[in-house]
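note to self — DONT lose this again. spent like an hour looking for the file last time. sequence + predicted structure for the chain T wanted, 540 res
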Amino acid sequence: MADVLLQDLWFHRVDGVRIENVLAEGELVVVRACAVAALARCPGCGVASSRVHSRYVRRLADSAVARRGVVIELGVRRFRCKGSACTRATFVEQIDGLTFRYGRRSAGLQRVLQQLALMLAGRAGARLAATLAVTASRSTLLRLIRALPDPVADTPKVLGVDEFALRKGHVYATILVDIETRQPVDLLPDRTVATVAAWIAAHPGIEVICRDRSLAYAEAGRLGAPNAIHVADRWHIWKNLAESVEKTVIQYRALLREHGEPDTPQTVPTLDTKGLGHEAAAGPRQSGRLSDRVREQHAAVHELLGQGVGLRPIARRLGLARNTVRRFAQATTADELLVGKWTGRPSILDPYKPFLHQRWSEGCTTARRLFQELQERGYEGGESVVKTYIRKLRQVFPHADPPRRHPSVRDVTSWITRHPDRLDGDQAQRLKAVLTRCPQLDRTARHVRSFAELMNNRQGRDLDQWIADVQADDLPALHSFVNGLSQDLDAVVAGLSLRYSSGAVEGHNNKIKMLKRQMFGRANFDLLRKRVLLAASGRS
């Protein structure tokens, strides 16, 4: 057994260590070893010494083997320092790759736990560590993250800047990303001009700054790197244009419906309520668990009555109440007992069903709208009752075509700002009809298509002509959009001309949201910064 374990633990052999034996003690594997190097260097002055002061045994936890925890009992020596100017009188030898100062686990296990903490944080990391037969609490894992040194990153030539929420709506911080390597460079505790400008000034060599259209980051970039080219993110530019289009569509929403189109949907055939099932039926129910039981009990009662058995003995024999047996005895057939049961129950909706049938025949099939109309007529029931009845109407009339509603503001905005190839035939036809009825929206759509071609083909040099064309039209919402572009025109032109964008920054923003949720309650800025800078890049 010891030979097999010794073979499995072959990787524990390092220079200057001799493994004496390996023992299996319960759920632990104990490796006894000792340091055999002739010399050791003082960590204070670096002078080598061979003078041994004393010896003792260190117990180090190591990575598990065969689902068993491993403990290394390592005999080490304390040496006397020979350096005359050194403040240390003695020091303990350290084994490279195995021990470190004040450590109670091996260097290999320390690196494993650090990676575990970076990937999974506290609770999840502790659960996985327990599965790997390693003991580590969530607080221990968080301390390991905080103890890691900050990674040393080169100054990026193309820097991406954006904000992210530490506490949404209240506290915001800044993330800096190297756009060329797509790796985070640093996290700043706020988004003020002074903080961002100071960081940029402390890292000379930045040539391009990718950002959204925030005036604070624009000013910080101009102060920290006056010669850098600012690139406005294309996604944010297009989002602002879509918002302007939506305002224009709202302004002319009265023209979205065709002339003469009724407010109510198209009519459907008149209802025949005989198809609504047993709610409108008058006869007894012929099948079902409850009706079958009534029929069986009625037959049993009349069979015993034919044998001359009295009502009280029948009740005892069948386990029924005497009054129940009396009702069964008085009924000639079971159908007399079933009429009115489980069929045609009175409902709070009954007085309003004729109105529902009328509205359904007129084409109104939306349960929420019908519920609101019933409330206006004094209905005091819940919406679920109306939804249940409307569901039954749809089951009875499955082939009734749903009414075609007129396009909404959101529909038209989406059609205008979407690539024409991504519109199906019906959407393209309806958009064409809307643009025909409203010349203002037609001109808006032409400007949007022109801007899309300008952006996709990176023809930022033609932006001035596009702005002039928009200003020549009477479209106030687009004029506001153009005025916003003019405030940051150089960055917008660069964003529409260069290949750089803030896509990598937005991706890391999403990762930060995931890390914050994973560290709920303990996502302090220092801990979050270490995890973003180390875990996102895969470094330790």
